[in-house]
């Protein structure tokens, strides 16, 4: 009997099938997570751009910008739950300002 190549029995076939199936599922989940991360980065970039655009329509940045962020935060939080505090929206705005020259997508 050849000890370098153990006989392929049902248990070994199941092990191999399980390893392959696990690999496929793990890889798919990783791709989905990367895709979700990219889509959220893109969404934040667009939100930041739109906040900047709204703030700069001839309004005083200090008063109007603050009201705008508070109201936007309230509405987004009502619709989506946690994750859209005024502080987070300020971070999203800063994210856009930092990366405004990068072409993210073609959404209007």
Distance between the termini: 69 Å
Largest sheet: none
Could you tell me the mean pLDDT?
Answer: 84
Strand segment count? 0
Q: Number of domains in the coordinates?
A: 1
Task: Describe this entry's structure for a reader.
- The chain has 108 residues and is mainly α.
- The chain has one domain (10-99).
- Helices cover 74% and strands 0% of the residues.
- The chain contains three helices and no strands.
- The protein has helices spanning 10-55, 61-80, 86-99.
- The relative contact order is 0.11.
- The mean pLDDT is 84.
Name its key features.
mainly alpha; 108 residues; single chain; 74% helix
List the helices and strands and how they pair.
Blueprint: H1 10-55, H2 61-80, H3 86-99
Task: Summarize the entry for a quick read.
With 108 residues, the protein is an all-alpha fold. Helices cover 74% and strands 0% of the residues. It contains three helices and no strands.
């Amino acid at each position: 009997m050849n000890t370098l190549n153990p006989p392929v029995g049902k248990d070994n076939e199941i092990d191999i099938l399980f390893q392959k199936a696990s690999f496929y599922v793990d890889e798919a989940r990783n791709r989905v997570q990367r895709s979700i991360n990219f889509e959220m980065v893109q969404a934040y970039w667009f939100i930041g751009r739109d906040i900047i655009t709204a703030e700069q329509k001839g309004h005083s940045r200090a008063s109007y910008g603050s009201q705008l962020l508070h109201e936007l935060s309230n509405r987004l939080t009502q619709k989506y739950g946690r994750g859209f505090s005024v502080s987070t929206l300020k971070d999203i705005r800063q994210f856009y300002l930092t990366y405004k020259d990068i072409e993210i997508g073609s959404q209007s």
